[in-house]
Amino acid sequence: MENQKTINHSTQRMTIILIVVALILSIPLIAMQFTNEVKWGLFDFVVMGALLLSTGFAIELVIRKVKAGTLRTVLFFIILLALFLIWAELAVGIFGTPFAGS
């Protein structure tokens, strides 16, 4: 019975991750309809979707595997920091790496 509860919670969290990623990706999609300032192509949506999904799945993995509260918090911070640094590099090339296309 306990195993079934764990599966249900994991399935619910995975569903929430997918919904949140879809909602975040809908923001630039909607913005493109109203302004010429936002110009995303299919590749942009694919890359951002992969980045958001990998972040969500990494957080899900930490939730499943790490029980210590402090270690869990540190890992969440590291995962989110990596997300924001990669996002900033892809968006504006803040570090000037070839990764951003500069």
Automatic annotation (TrEMBL):
Keywords: Membrane, Transmembrane, Transmembrane helix
Superkingdom assignment: Bacteria
Keyword set includes Transmembrane: yes
Transmembrane segments: 14-34, 40-62, 74-96
Identification of the protein by name: Uncharacterized protein
Organism whose genome encodes this protein: Pedobacter punctiformis
